[in-house]
Write a structure and sequence with these properties.
The chain is an alpha+beta fold. Helix content is 46%, strand content 17%. A 4-stranded antiparallel beta sheet has the order 1-2-4-3, sandwiched between helices. A hairpin with a 2-residue loop joins strand 3 (60-64) and strand 4. The radius of gyration is 14 Å and the shape is globular.
Length: 126
């Protein structure tokens, strides 16, 4: 399958099996990472920018306080493609190498932040 073709729901679910911290979010796959500080978030995003440039594929990035939320979507295809999963796997490697992810224990903080600031997902779907 061409890595730039939109993937069907069944294929997306199958591929998400190898990325348990990611989820389907409309026309993107999404993952949030918690950091100790805003400064750590920005440092991570700067490293991610280098990785994304090398792939010529960039995630949508949202920073809220100590949380970075990443959305991988192929805007030119108007959906999720194999390239998005390639990027997500590379991001996971970057997270493993560079950060101590605070994981599910602090997911309540993300929920609270989304309630305070609104959910950015709606913006991505426009």
């Amino acid at each position: 399958m061409d890595s730039t073709q939109i993937l069907h729901t069944r294929e997306i679910k199958k591929r998400l099996g190898s990325l348990p911290t990611w989820e389907k979010n409309s026309k993107a796959i999404k993952r949030s990472v918690l950091f100790e500080s805003f400064h750590e978030c920005v440092d991570f995003v700067c490293i991610l920018a280098e990785l994304s440039d090398s792939m010529e594929h960039h995630p949508d990035i949202e920073i809220r306080e100590n949380t970075v939320t990443l959305y991988c979507s192929s805007h030119s295809a108007n959906g999720i493609t194999g390239v998005d999963f390639d990027l997500a796997h590379r991001i996971e490697g970057l997270i493993t190498e560079t950060v101590v992810d605070r994981g599910d224990e602090d997911m309540d903080e993300i929920d609270e932040a989304e309630q305070l600031f609104g959910d950015a997902d709606a913006l991505l779907n426009d």
